[in-house]
Amino acid sequence: MSHTAHIPSHRKPRRSATKVALRAGVAGGVLSTLAVAAAAGTANAAEPVTETIEMPTLTADLSAQIAHSADVTQQAAVSYESRAEQDAAASKAAKQAKEDQAQAEKKAEAKRKAEAAAKKKAEQERASRSAERTNLSTQSTGGGSSASSSDSVAPASGSVGSVISFLKSQLGDAYVMGASGPNAWDCSSLVQAAFKQAGVDLPRVSQDQSTMGTEVGTSNLQVGDILYWGGKGSAYHVGVYIGNGQYLDAANPSKGVVIQDLSGYPASGAVRVL
Question: How far apart are CA 139 and CA 100, in angstroms?
Fold first, then answer.
């Protein structure tokens, strides 16, 4: 008898086929469950991408539409830019027009003031000449008076007074046809020289002198008016009215430069240059 016969075997008992099959079935079911769960998890993770977007095919018609849309957009941009430029130009033109209007109004106002000042000055000068003529007429003496009778009237440059003063200073000078002073005169040269003292340039001959200035009636004479004898434009003699119905002229070779009464030799007409 073997000395090991009573020692129990150390081998584990074999499992029965039924138990092994059962365990295998359970394990397979668990694995199947896990596989299904994994598949479900993967499917759930992909759920956000649920639709495929199909891009349109770029056909010739679609290309034309895109090009047309681009042209329209460009034209709109050009139109907006042009309108902006027009608005800016209109604004600038309006501003310039406003400035021009203000400048024109300023110039018009300055012109009105200048005209008013000139009118006032002319009125003052007319009043001064009228007063001067009245004064000269009052102080004038009769025919044959000497130059000393004019000493009380101080010559005034550019006025009737300077004309009358010059004329009276020539009293007694000779009359010589064609002479022009300083000690001999004819009628028109004496008148021309007298008015030159007042800054008035008269023609040399009596015919032309009778057409100068403004025609006045012989019944409305003022001191300094030029008297003429004969027709206007064809006068043969001239003199200057000095007031009180008298005039001064270079009469003729026998009288020379004298003061005479109009009543003895009425003038045909008269002109006023001052």
Answer: 58
